Amino acid sequence: MEVKVEGGDEFANASYEKICMSTFRDVGVRSSLDLVYMYCNPKEHVFIVAVKIGRVASPIKVGDITHREGETLRITNETYAPKLLALLWEMYGERVQQISRLEIGFKLEEKEVDELKELVVYDPREDLVARILDGIDRIIPEGARVRSTIPSTGRLTIIASENPIGDDWRIKAEELVSAYV
Amino acid sequence: MYKIMMFEGGVYKFNELKELIEDIGGFILQESVMQTETMLHLAFPEEEERVIRDKIKDLGGKFKELPLAGAEIVIIVPSLGKHHAVDPACDIAEFFRRKGAITNMLGLARGVGQRIAQMTAQEREIIEEFDAAVFVFGCFKECIEEKVRLCAMLDVPYMVVGGPSDLAVDHYVGGIGRKTDRMRRKGEIDILDDMTAELGKIVDDRRREIEEDPLAASPLFIKDMIEMVIPPKAGEELPIIIRLDGLRVNIEKEDLGRIREVEIGKKKLSEICDLKKSLFKGYLLKIRTEAVTGSIY
C-alpha cells in the first residue's frame, strides 16, 4: 500500500502518513488497497481522503482453517473460530459441538463432511467497503463532520470539513484525486 | 520548604531511614514493600537533603528526584474518542506520574474541530480545580493557534502540547501531535522529557508564588493530621491527594464534620482552610495564607 499525504506542513504530512498506514492495518484492509491519497487544508479545514481498491483476498473456506482428525475438526486459525462455529451451528444444529477451545466434534455423513469443507466462513469482499470507510473515519480529524463523497468504480473518495462543502471543493477534489488515484 | 524524593532499595535497615525522616520533621507520602524491594516517597525539609542522601548511600539504595511531586495535573484532550485517546495522552500522563505528579485525564465534550471547538463553563471550573493543565492538541499549526483561545480563558497555569515544533504559544512543546501507537522510540522519549521539564518550570513558578505569601500550614502536615483522625481505609488508593496549595480529600459526607474539627497546631482545620465540594472528586481543601489566619502555633 502506497500512501501520499499533501497540503499540510512537513510534520503534519509525515504524521498523517503514519496514521494512514497504521489505521488501515488495524482495520485489516492494508493488503486490499493499492494507494491512499490524502490532502489536508487546515486553513480552510478541508480534508480529502481517496483510496484505490486493489486485489481482495479470496474467501476463507472451512477447509482452509481446520484440519480433520477422525470425527473432529481441529481449528488451525483461531481468528475465524467464532464465525466458523456460528456457521456450523446454523447449518447442522446439535450435530456439531465444540469439545474444547480448538476442537469441534461432528456427527455427519461422509458426503456432508466433504460439502462442509467447501463452506465459505468469511468473504473479505462482504464488508470491505465498510471497513475502508471505518478506516477513513478514524483518519480524518474528528471535528470534520460534514462529509461528501465522490462516486467512482474501484476508488473511494471522501471530502470532510467542519464547514459546508461547496461545489468548488468537489471540483478541486476530483482534480486532485484523478491526478494520483 | 519541603523537598519530595523517591527512595528505591532493599529492606535492610529500612526502618532506620523512616525513623530519620520522622526525626528531621519529614513525612512518608507513599510506601510500598514488594518482598525484598521497597519504594518510598519522602518529603523532608530542603536543608536536610545531605543527611538523607548520606543515609540512603549507607543503605545502598537509589534516590530519585520528583520535580512534579505534590502537584495534581489534568491532561485535557479534545475528546475521549479513538482520534485522541489513548495515544499520546496516556504516554504523557505516564511520564508526569514517573516524575511524581498525580494525573487525571479530561476529554472535552465539544473540544474537537477548529472553529467549532468549545469548552463548557463546567469543564472550565473542573480544570481550574487542578494545579496545572496540559492540553494535548494535534498536528496542524493553524488548528493549534485557533484552539489556544480555549486555554487563554483559564485561571490556572497551562501548557500546550502539539505537533509543529515552532509555534508562538506560551509553554508550548512540539513534536508530538496525533499518534496511533505508543511513544517508545529514543527521539520520542526525549520529547516527553522536554515536556516534563517544561511542566516542571510551570509548577516551580506556582510554588514560588505560594512561597511569597506562605500558607498557614504545609499540605503534607495537614495530611498527616487528617490521617490521625480519619485513618485511610484498607485497600483505598490515594484517599488524600496533596496539591500545591491544599489537598483533595476523598471522604464520605458524614466525615465532613470530623474533618472540620481536626486540630492543626492551635487552630482547627476549618479556621485555616476553605472546604468545598469538588466538581470532579471528593472535597477540596484550600489552605489560607498565614497572613490571613495568623500563626497556627
Structure report:
The complex is a heterodimer of chains A (181) and B (297). Chain A has two domains: 2-57 and 126-180, 2-Layer Sandwich (Double Stranded RNA Binding Domain), CATH 3.30.160; 60-122, no CATH class. Chain A has six helices and eleven strands. Chain A has 181 residues and is α+β, with helices and mostly antiparallel strands. Chain A has helices at residues 10-26, 62-65, 81-92, 110-117, 128-139, 167-180; strands spanning 2-6, 33-41, 46-53, 60-61, 66-69, 72-75, 96-100, 103-106, 120-122, 146-152, 155-161. In chain A, a hairpin with a 2-residue loop joins strand 5 and strand 6. In chain A, helix 1 (10-26) runs antiparallel to helix 5. Chain B is an alpha/beta fold and 297 residues long. Chain B has three domains: 2-65, Alpha-Beta Plaits, CATH 3.30.70.600; 72-210, Rossmann fold; 219-293. Chain B is built from ten helices and 15 strands. In chain B, helix 3 (89-98) links the parallel strand 5 (72-77) and strand 6. The longest helix of chain B has 27 residues, at 186-212.
